[in-house]
Amino acid sequence: MGSWFLVGLLFFSLTFKAQSQKADSLLQLINGKEASVGFTPDTTYVKLLNSLGFELDESQLDSINAIGQLTYHLSKQLNYLNGQIEALEHLAYVLELNGENLEATEKLQEGLQLARKTGNKQKLTLFYHSLGKLYSYLGKYPESISHAQQSQKLAMETDNKILQSGNYNTMAMVYYYQRNLEEALTNYEKCIAIAKSIVRKQTIALALTNIGHIYVDQQRYSDALAAYQQSMSISQEEDLKFSIGLNLSSIAAIYVNQGNYEAALKYFQEAFETQKLVGDNMELANNLDGIAWCYFHMKDFKTSLKYAKEALVYAQQVNSIWYLKKINETLKNIYTQTGQYKEALYHFEQFKVYTDSINSNESKEKIVRLEEQFKYDQQVIELKATNDTNIAKRNAWIYLTSLGLLFTVLVAFILYRDNRLRKKTNKELEAMGEFRNRLLSIVAHDVRGPLNSLKGVLHLFEHKTITAEEISFLIKQISVKVTQVIDFTDDLLLWARSQMAKTELQITSFELSETINQTLALLRPMADLKNIGLQSDFLNPVEVKADKEMVKIVIRNLISNAIKFSRQNESIQIQTTIEPDNNVKISVLDFGVGIDEKKLSELFMSPTASQQGTGNETGTGLGLMLSKHYIEMNNGIIGASSTVGKGSHFWFTLPLALKPQ
User: Are 557 and 610 in contact (CB under 8 A)?
Assistant: First the structure.
């Protein structure tokens, strides 16, 4: 037995305390197996450990984590998939309660893949549900809806009422975050109806609280207060501290809307103390933001800033897009009132980023498509028996006469051919539509960002909260961002022209090294800012046959990208080599941050949102796609290879003007 295993058992036995009769019985069985002669861990032992883990609660996360780590490694050694699946459940549960939602989704995704292999519907339903919930926290709304709907289909097949109710709750949350209040209310009501049928009081209490939130947004304050009080009554009866804290902060929010900040502050503080007992970082962030907002309206900006900063730390720990948006808005208002305009502008930009993420049209369109697909799938299930009957009738009719058969075959052939043509056209249209959506997404990302910054400065100036001297300082920063918009527009126009049917190449023979040196001279100041050396290793003068301006654009894009993703004091190499097929290969090598394999495979295929460089530089998101198009128009090939953390190699080929002697 490995030493890690013995250490794990020792740690486990020292820290575990039984919490129930069943847990105590399981622990006795585990100790009995360990004490047996010639003990070797087997699948029965793993089952006992995992069962024990399910008997523990959030007060013993360390023990649950120890069990999960131990059973995961044992199950891998034993090739015991069900053991691995339950171990991943434990690990994801601990990560979620610790606010590490992104890491929890990774464990759940691994568990989901294993559950697919085993065909375990119960675990599939659970993993889909848990992923749907966590994706909603992370602001990945299409993914959240998709996983919740997958879980709902399986939950209906297996009559799992608990997860049916939970999935309606997840979908309601997403609709609420995207301000579709009516759809959110409908899903919460469905959640409560199922929860009542199985007497799930905690679920009912939480759903009532969320319904109260919707009523607040609709300014139905008396209805909201009634919902919160009903939820509070259930929560106190069941001693549900999380739900009690949630209702306290919700009642505080009503007082905020009514302008009674002293009363709101009292409820937010009580809610914060209650949630500290639970350890829910997301609600702690919400309560601290509420406290900051109360002090802001009470004109105590110093105290308000203190609580808002603390709220931001909690929100960043759980990476909650919704609360990050709220808290950045609070910080923007505080800094504006205290005359710290640079900080106000920064948090205004962050607020817009998170708002755009929540309200993105692309996400909404995906959710609508998923919703329609879900409804369609439900109709298919309900109409399956009817369809089977209709198919039987049709087959019977076909067999009546040979003439009918021949006629049906002929019609089917024609329809099949037309359908193939239609599908081909539809696929092409879908591809064009997807390309258009990606392009529009980039325009929104790379144009709206700088313009939002400019809007923020103008907003501060318009409300006379910023002096002419201060706006002069901020305009220097805005000027850089407006220049980025101009660069983006230039690349966009170049790409648009390249797509026109009548675009003509200006093919000439020209000396390649001279063109590269001209581009290096233009980009050297950019490299000098990061003390990056540009090293060239050219062959003897080589003439190529291509459109010179297009080649210049490609070289500029590749070298500027290399500078962008290189760190201070690194170097970039530009090389040329003669290929056997009468082509010259131009290479740009850097030793920067590198690109992961998934992104590398999609690099030249479609426009991508620009990524910040090592010095916070931005790009247009169109450069590589434009480069690929230009090189292929000139009978060349473009490619790349990369290793994360070690650098990238981008290259392209061009035909030689004359064959080498």
Answer: no
Is CATH 3.30.565.10 correct for 507-655? yes
CB 637 within 8 A of CB 653: yes
CA distances (Å), origin 568, targets 521, 592, 615: 19, 9, 9
Helices 121-137 and 81-97, packing angle to 10 deg: 20
* Tens-place pLDDT, residues 559-612: 988 888 898 889 999 999 888 888 999 999 999 888 888 787 777 765 555 566
3-state class of 252 per DSSP?
Answer: helix
- How many Cβ atoms sit within 10 Å of the Cβ of residue 348? 25
In this structure, are residues 571 and 591 in contact, taking their beta carbons and an 8 Å threshold? yes
Determine the Cα–Cα distance for residues 98 and 121; give it in Å rounded to an integer.
28
User: What are the structure tokens assigned to 333, written together?
Assistant: 């208002």
The pTM score is: 0.50
Q: What angle do CA 406, 409, 413 make, to 5 degrees?
A: 140
Torsion sign (Cα): 377, 381, 382, 387: positive
Q: Which residues pair with 643 in a beta bridge?
A: 647
Which amino acid, one-letter code, is at 642? S
Q: Is 49 helix (H, G, I), strand (E, B) or coil?
A: helix
Longest pairwise C-alpha distance within the chain: 92
Retrieve residue 562's tokens: 């290399």
Q: Where are the domains of the chain?
A: 507-655
Q: Return d(Cα 476, Cα 472) in angstroms, integer.
A: 7
pLDDT tens digit sequence for 409-438: 455 555 555 556 555 555 555 545 555 555
Give the 3-state DSSP-derived string for 462-519, with helices as H, strands as E and coil as C.
Answer: HCCCCCHHHHHHHHHHHHHHHHHHHHHHHHHHHHHHHHCCCCCCCEEEEEHHHHHHHH
What is the spatial distance between Cα 292 and Cα 290, in angstroms, rounded to a whole number?
5
The b-or-e profile of 624-649 (16+ CB within 10 A means b, else e) is bbbbbbbbeebebebebebeeeebbb
| CA 546/CA 126 separation, integer angstroms | 58
Q: Give the span between the Cα atoms of 320 and 576, in whole angstroms.
A: 48
Question: Treating both helix axes as pointing N-terminal to C-terminal, what angle do 3-15 and 61-78 enclose, rounded to 10 degrees?
Answer: 150
- End-to-end alpha carbon distance in the chain: 69
DSSP state of 606: S
Per-residue pLDDT of 457-498, as tens digits, reads 666 666 656 666 666 666 655 665 565 566 556 666 665 555
Closest CA to 274 of 249, 294, 252: 249
Specify the 3-state DSSP secondary structure of 428: helix
Closest CA to 630 of 497, 465, 441: 497
Residues 6+ apart with CB under 8 A from 355: 325
